[in-house]
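Summary for the funding panel

The consortium committed to producing paired sequence-structure records for every protein in the target list. Below we show the first two records in order, beginning with the earlier of the two.
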Amino acid sequence: METFDTLTLPEGPWTTTINVLPSGEEQEQLRRQGYELDGLGRPLHPWLREMLTDPEVGVVTGLGEYWHWGPNKTADPIVINNDNTPKILLIKRSDTGIWALPGGFVDGDESAETAARRELQEETGLLLVGTDGEQVYDGVVADLRTTAHAWAETTAILWRVEGTPTVHAGDDAAGAQWFEVNELPDQLHGSHAVLIEQALDSIDTVAHYNHAISLPHELVNLKYIDGGHMSYHHLHATTPSRKNVFIKSHDATAFTDPLREAHSRGYLHKELKMYLHIADFEPTLIPENVRLENGHTLLMDALDPEGGWHWNAPKETIHSYIVDVLMAAEKLQAIQLPDNFHDTLLPTYNTHIEEGWPTLDNESFESIQTNLEQWNARLRPEFSAITEEFIVSLPSLRNTFKALPAPGELVFSHHDFRQANVAWRPDAGAKIVDWSWAGVGRKNSDATTFLIDLHKSGHDISRYMDHFNQEHALTLIGFWLAHSLWPTRSDDKTVRLHQTISAISAFDLLRN
């Protein structure tokens, strides 16, 4: 028997490791954390006095079902949506059948926030991206496994999300469901009713909504992919059978302008329509198993470099690569035009024209020259050598553009047919992604964009110039130069530099 302020604690076989006491190092660490120890060096629960005096609570000794003496750190994500009557996401525990917040133990050195996001994804299939959550509680919580010497201490974190994303029970959850906050289940696990109450008291302090991506539970090993438009999240995942999946998800929280947000979301819907249309005619040109989830997340089979796919020109087999990609461009422009390209803005063909040469004047040319003088050291020597000729030629190039005849037959075009949007494997040919700009275009528009991009990268494409459309190249020069003068959201003008280099690359091909 052991005594504690004249109260006694009965010993019992509450753990198979009851004879394994905290080590000296563990005891010292617990003391530094402010916990009181008993005569055997075991930490005493902060609520022990209350537990001993409340017969409905009671107390047992030992380590019990926990891994660590003293506090066992957990994390509880509290996800509440933005409906007029907010809904909260709960899971049904598989061990008790009681509804609870998603959550679980913190692994190793991970932060409570990381653990909360991970547990949420594992138990509900919901991936949160965006801002940090709002901590609403950090401390001891009630749990059926609690003993006098081992207990749970949780960090509860509140996130707000848009809508009610699809959820699926996973890991050790038997169910996952959204509940209106005023119609919660009668019984909730442990201290979760109190945690939810505190979250609701703090709900007005959360200024930002997070983007929530609903993921199939078979997806594992998620990792972010750098690059791409900032309004989309790009991720790569695998299944237990090692199948690769690419995820592109629109994030409404990245916008302050509702119109621009709607346009960005609309482009994903357009992409899906283009994939479905192309699948009816040339399915080998696109990835397989493309689908749109919750109206904002596009999933498709990934074309992973580890699987032999190249996302830029491979030097050792560059001729085969170029031939296959140009063949894909030929097949694409032979596809029947869809009835509707589902454009959310000005069609790309018109954008290339109207946002290009007509917006450039002599003052614009002076600004382009100033930029080139600043960027000269970052240009390849062969491009740096022709910048003066390029600047001098701009007025005549503009006049030549104005005199272009109306195009003949317009064909199906990708309109962003660069190396970064084409995956190639020797045994499978070329597959094309990112169809946001798809629309009608001049014949060989895509082949021309591709050849300009290769030339920009330093590849010799002279033997393939029979695929080059000079009229489209001239149009692109004006479009790229006009956009190179647009303001940027930050001081980083790398995109503007690359637009200018693309224009010089096209000019160099025109002059030869």
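The next record, for a separate protein in the list, is shown here:
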Amino acid sequence: MRITVADYRISPTEDSLNNHDALDLWLRQTVGTARHVSGTCKMGPVSDPMTVVDQHCRVKGIVGLWVVDASIMPRVPRSGGTRATVLMIAERVVEWISEA
């Protein structure tokens, strides 16, 4: 049984699929790596000169600015990427902002 998931394919072309060298070339030109960037905006106490945000995601030295993304996470969660964790962080920061 063949299941159709798309009406037509844009890429790779039929010629590329039928030729190993052409398919290898298409793969080298098209396929790449992806990564979830995190840990570029260190969170920590105000006394640490290397931190960017405090424990409430407030940017040090700038009133009214928070960082709420994967950059404050020290590492990527092992359970499927950063999306769910960033959403959880955002939900919590919204509470802190609304209480301020």
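Regarding this second record: The chain has three helices and no strands. Residues 35-100 form one domain.
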